[in-house]
From TrEMBL:
Belongs to the glycosyl hydrolase 1 family. GO terms for cellular component: cytosol. GO terms for molecular function: beta-glucosidase activity. Keywords: Glycosidase, Hydrolase. It comes from Vagococcus carniphilus. GO terms for biological process: carbohydrate catabolic process. Its EC number is 3.2.1.21. This is beta-glucosidase. PANTHER family: GLYCOSYL HYDROLASE (PTHR10353), LP05116P (PTHR10353:SF36). Gene3D superfamilies: Glycosidases (3.20.20.80). It is an enzyme of class 3 (hydrolase). The active site is at residue 363.
Length: 458
């Protein structure tokens, strides 16, 4: 690996900070939704708000060179008038300064799903005004932190929060409406371009990208019907984010297909030209699994997401487009995620060929139940998972891809959306029942060795 290759861990504000109503932080749509439904929530989570110093120090001691985290919009902006909360800014200054103190490169996400509830109440991502509000929030952050930050990203995984929030309905705002899914998706991509435009207009140092939940698409065979299903799946899973952010264009065949059944008049010339002119400098790809598809001809659209950790519950079938199938030869987690490192290698090669932009693997990890009362969790499965995925990255580099970093999800245990804290991803265990005590797992030491051995090869 190049000596500037970044090795680190990724988190999101809602999933780790806790302190949900402290220091004038406003309610986010996730606070509101989970409180209302009386579900396990991130009120305390990993208590990173108070323990960030310990967490960042452990990253350093674990050999890591970068920390990817998100800025909480409702912590920084108090209301729809855009008033700034100095205490929120102060908190992120402390995080960033601690990173620098330990020689850790901060890698910032502007939006990791915690929309302020005061905006959700006006329609959230269905309201065009929220795009301008996001532009304003971005500008506040650029002005405040840009002299300390080299890497910015606008959105984390537009596909995931839009599809789950507006199409499947398992995330807030809990809608199941295709027309609204399209509008929200379009507004998010437009807001991303507005943020990139503000970044360029301010001549800030550093680079700006977008982070995508990448599921490269494979077909069950080589038939023409399967190839058509693969194209539908690729448009649905990947292209509407990556083509739009990296090339400035929504996939033309996707728009044509949707316009047969839905109203696409919200796509205005002025927005499209802003999207075209404000493409990203790099791509962040979060990789958990691929999408294996077969053609789908009969029956109804059905999208079921596994939040119980009981194998076999999930289903993705889009009528007339594709059906996601399970490879009988693959291993799956209890939450139905296929373990398929080859998908990362193939996917990186494909994404680099298509977009010719530097790539960071901004998330990769495996979520499992673990007993964290032991001294050191023996997570050999995580070691083997990370080992195989890091090898996949090296293979893609050997094939000529420009890959600049690897972030494990996650450097320490945190709250998993709708799954609660029992679905653990961390290299450091957090005992949620015992004062959020931290204890490194076996994978933490293993990752340190990998990073150090790479450094020696340079
Ligand atoms: C990504 C998100 C993360 C994280 C991760 C694991 O999609 O960017 O926020 O949660 O997936 O997913 P989950 O917590 O649902 O298992």
């Amino acid at each position: 690996m190049d000596k500037n290759f970044l090795w680190g861990g990724a988190t999101a504000s809602y999933q780790c900070e806790g302190a949900w109503n402290v220091d004038e932080k406003q309610e986010s749509m996730w606070d509101h939704y989970l409180h209302l439904q009386e579900l396990e929530n991130g009120d305390i989570a990993s208590d990173h708000y108070h323990r960030y110093e310990e967490d960042i120090r452990m990253m350093k001691e674990g050999g890591q060179t970068s920390y990817r985290f998100s800025l909480s919009w409702p912590r920084i902006i108090k209301n729809r008038e855009g008033e700034v909360n100095q205490k929120g800014l102060d908190f992120y200054h402390k995080i960033i300064d601690t990173c620098h103190k330990y020689d850790i490169e901060p890698f910032v996400t502007l939006y990791h799903w915690d929309l302020p509830q005061y905006w959700e109440e006006t329609g959230g991502w269905l309201n065009l005004d929220v795009c301008q509000a996001f532009e304003h929030f971005s500008e506040v952050c650029f002005k405040e932190f840009s002299d300390k930050i080299k890497f910015w990203t606008t959105f984390n995984e537009p596909k995931w929060f839009i599809v789950n929030g507006y199409f499947i309905g398992n995330y807030p705002p809990g809608l199941q409406n295709v027309q609204k899914t399209m509008i929200a998706a379009y507004h998010v991509m437009y807001a991303s371009a507005l943020s990139v435009r503000a970044f360029r207009a301010g001549n800030y140092p550093g680079q700006i990208g977008v982070v995508h939940s990448y599921t490269p698409v494979n077909g069950v065979n080589d038939s023409i019907e399967t190839k058509i299903a693969m194209r539908y799946a690729d448009n649905y899973c990947n292209n509407w984010i990556l083509d739009t952010a990296a090339k400035g264009e929504f996939p033309i065949d996707l728009v044509a297909k949707l316009s047969e059944s839905y109203d696409v008049s919200f796509m205005e010339e002025e927005h499209l030209s802003i999207i075209k002119q404000n493409t990203v400098d790099f791509i962040g790809l979060n990789y958990y699994a691929r999408t294996l598809v077969k053609p789908y001809t009969t029956g109804e659209t059905q999208l079921i997401f596994n939040h119980t950790g009981k194998k076999g519950e999930s289903k993705v079938v889009i009528k007339g487009w594709f059906e996601q199938v399970k490879d009988p030869n693959s291993e799956f987690t209890a939450w139905d995620t296929e373990i398929y490192p080859k998908g990362l290698e193939d996917g990186l090669i494909e994404a680099y060929e298509r977009y010719q932009l530097p790539i960071f693997v901004t998330e990769n990890g495996v979520g499992v139940r673990e007993d964290v009362t032991v001294d050191c969790v023996n997570d050999d499965y995580r070691i083997s998972f990370m080992n195989d995925h890091i090898n996949a990255i090296m293979n893609a580099q050997d094939a000529g891809c420009d890959i600049r970093g690897y972030y494990t999800w996650s450097p320490f245990d945190l709250y998993s959306w709708k799954n609660g804290c029992e679905k653990r991803y961390g290299l450091v265990a957090v005992d949620f029942d015992n004062n959020q005590i931290r204890k490194p797992k076996k994978s933490y030491y293993w990752f340190k060795e990998i990073i150090e051995s790479q450094a020696k090869l340079i």
